[in-house]
Design brief:
The complex is a heterodimer of chains A (323) and B (264).
Chain A: H1 2-58, H2 67-84, H3 88-107, H4 115-134, E1 153-155, E2 158-160, H5 163-185, H6 188-198, H7 200-205, H8 210-236, H9 246-259, H10 264-280, H11 288-302, H12 314-321
Antiparallel strand pairs in A: 1-2
Chain B: E1 4-15, E2 18-29, E3 33-37, H1 44-51, E4 59-64, E5 67-68, H2 74-80, E6 82-84, H3 97-102, H4 113-118, H5 121-141, H6 156-168, E7 174-178, H7 186-201, E8 205-209, H8 213-219, E9 222-227, E10 230-235, H9 237-242, H10 244-251, H11 254-263
Parallel strand pairs in B: 3-8, 3-9, 6-7, 7-8
Antiparallel strand pairs in B: 1-2, 1-4, 4-5, 9-10
Helix pairs in contact in B: 5-6
Classes of the chains: A mainly alpha (323), B alpha/beta (264).
Chain lengths: 323, 264
């Protein structure tokens, strides 16, 4: 019964998603540069939320210092571009790889920590990195002023500079990432992450190499955050430590928890709430935090599983093997 | 006498000042149902944890199919062919039964990050293989109809069966069951014993910890008895029932027995 209705529903759902995507394609032509920019930043937050969701949502590792990886990506792009003049197009993947590499080095010694212990250490990592950036090691990070004059990306004759360019850059990358993550969720790797989240000892007894699976999640999450940071750097052309504070990490953590841990649509909804609502509420600037605080409390009391909790995908499985 | 599949040699484990397992030697013959029994606190579960790599022994050796697995991490031991269930159920509560059992296939498959993202042909075939294996194991314990149910929603007895199915999905040659009958009623226990025999008939060696003496004597072909972290007897059920030391450990000397009863 269930199985049949699900099968019928499937094309309809595909249609809805298709229409939504079409809407996203038309949006910047109708919305004007201001809202296109808002949408671009929204996309960057979705990307960051997705990257943190791998760590927090899929594997259940409390990482409250995710802005550190975001900063690593942004500073990689900023420094390599301004000091050595490497074109920012190349730096997009390089920032991802470097942030992922740092993610590996930084979390390797702490990967065995659980729950609240890991949470505290990741807060520490975030703060250490931010303070290091302020202290301007080897004159690379520019201290509190940050890195100035980062060049825009150039693809052939197209310079990605206008809001609409950035909008599409972010849309393409986010779409690719969402598709990749959806596939991962339905794979052996994604399931192994969920097993670890559900019961680490049992996962280990089932033959899952818990340590390397956790590291993989951190590397992937850090790498994606690095890519988001690189886009941010070329968009702003200026980066400074104050964009990567502990507060930023809290916002990202909230996006994942608010949307529903381990849920990709949840991350999108969560980012929307954390990003677009403040823009809408700009006139009530003073009360923004009050509103947020209250909303958070109400959420956790009435809907602890998140706005859009992840669905089990067994029905799809059932359809294949039902007959 | 069959070749021993598992050999535990002089294994010792202390937690702080407490010597939980003290120079224990025993073996499990291949293709049989073996039991590890003993009063509460005898060190049975610790021995299980040592065999499956959750704890590392302070001294001694564990050989599995002739290979030294002492101190190997759990995932290596599972890959080598030892699967286990837990005394206190350890399922993945918020995942479906099917997903729970699919976990067992993790060690038998190898799709990596890239092939999962690219959805390669081999990865899809492997996914099908995982589903098929999970289905067989769920069928075996009779839970296929509950495949889409979250594990936490199952009855206690079904959760125990699901754990066995999950362990079977790792395609083990030795299946270790930690008190599988605890909390089951008589009907469920009978069904469990039947299931254990069926698994044995498929060529999987079984090692179980069990409190229920009817289950142990009814099903085991080989029994090892622990008391206070030491082995006090090993042999067939008939041997064990005759063993003086075992009888004392279980029933107590007469005067001790009396004092215990008055305490309760």
């Amino acid at each position: 019964m269930e199985v049949v209705s699900e099968a019928k529903e499937f094309p309809r759902r595909r249609l809805i998603y298709g229409a939504l995507f079409l809407l996203l394609l038309i949006f910047p032509f109708k919305a004007g540069p201001y809202w296109t920019d808002v949408a671009t930043f929204f996309g960057i937050y979705v990307l960051l939320g997705l990257s943190l969701n791998i760590i927090v949502g899929e594997v259940g590792l409390f990482n409250m210092g995710h802005a550190a990886f975001y900063a690593l990506g942004a500073y990689t792009t900023g420094i390599l571009n301004t000091v050595w003049g490497i074109p920012t197009v190349w730096l997009l993947p390089v920032s991802g790889i470097l942030a992922g590499g740092f993610g590996y080095l930084l979390t390797r010694p702490i990967i065995h920590l659980r729950g609240d212990y890991l949470l505290i250490v990741t807060i520490g990592l975030n703060e250490i990195l931010r303070i290091t950036l302020i202290n301007d090691p080897w004159g690379l990070t520019g201290g509190p002023n940050g890195v100035l004059g980062i060049k825009r990306m150039r693809l052939g004759s197209l310079v990605i500079s206008r809001p609409i360019h950035f909008y599409f850059l972010v849309l393409i990358i986010t779409t690719l990432v969402v598709m990749a993550l959806l596939r991962l969720q339905r794979s052996r790797i994604g399931r192994a992450w969920n097993y670890i989240r559900e019961d680490e000892v049992a996962a280990e007894a089932m033959g899952i190499d818990v340590r390397s699976m956790k590291l993989l999640a951190f590397v992937l999450g850090a790498g994606l955050a690095g890519i988001a940071g690189s886009i941010y750097a070329t968009k702003m052309m200026i980066i400074s430590p104050e964009s990567f504070t502990f507060w930023e990490s809290i916002v990202l953590f909230t996006i994942v928890v608010l949307g529903g841990m381990g849920s990709i649509p949840g991350v999108i909804v969560g980012s929307a709430v954390m990003m677009i609502l403040p823009e809408l509420l700009r006139d009530f600037m003073q009360y923004r935090m009050l509103f947020f605080g209250a909303a958070m409390v109400v959420m956790m009391v009435f809907r602890p599983q998140g706005l859009w909790p992840s669905k089990r995908w067994q029905l799809e499985m059932g359809r294949e093997t039902e007959e | 006498m069959e070749q021993p599949l598992l050999q535990v040699i002089g294994v010792r484990k202390a937690f702080g000042g407490l010597l939980a397992v003290n120079d224990v030697d025993f073996w499990v013959p291949e293709g049989q149902i073996a039991s590890l029994i003993g009063p509460n606190g005898a060190g049975k579960t610790t021995v299980f944890n040592l065999i499956t790599g959750i704890e590392t022994p302070d001294a001694g050796k564990i050989l599995f199919a002739g290979r030294d697995i002492t101190g190997c991490p759990p995932h290596v031991i599972t890959r080598a062919g030892i699967a286990r269930t837990f005394q206190t159920l350890r399922l993945f509560p918020n995942l479906t039964c099917l997903e729970n059992v699919m976990a067992g296939q993790h060690v038998r498959t190898k799709a990596g990050l890239l092939s999962s993202i690219l959805h390669t042909r081999r990865q899809r075939e492997e996914e099908r293989q995982i589903c098929d294996a999970a289905r067989r194991c769920l069928d075996k314990v009779g839970l296929w109809h509950l495949r889409a149910e979250l594990a936490k929603n199952l009855s206690y007895g079904d959760q125990r069966l699901l754990e066995i199915a999950r362990a079977l999905a790792t395609e083990p040659s030795l299946l270790i069951l930690d008190e599988p009958a605890s909390g089951l009623n008589n009907v469920e226990t009978a069904r469990l014993m039947e299931l254990i025999r069926e698994i044995r008939d498929e060529g999987i060696t079984i090692l179980l910890i069990e409190h229920d003496m009817d289950v142990v004597m009814g099903i085991s072909e080989w029994i090892t008895v622990l008391d206070n972290g030491r082995k006090i007897g090993q042999g067939t059920p008939e041997d064990i029932q005759q063993n003086e030391e075992v009888i004392v450990a279980y029933l107590g000397k007469e005067e001790e027995d009396f004092s215990w009863n008055s305490c309760n």
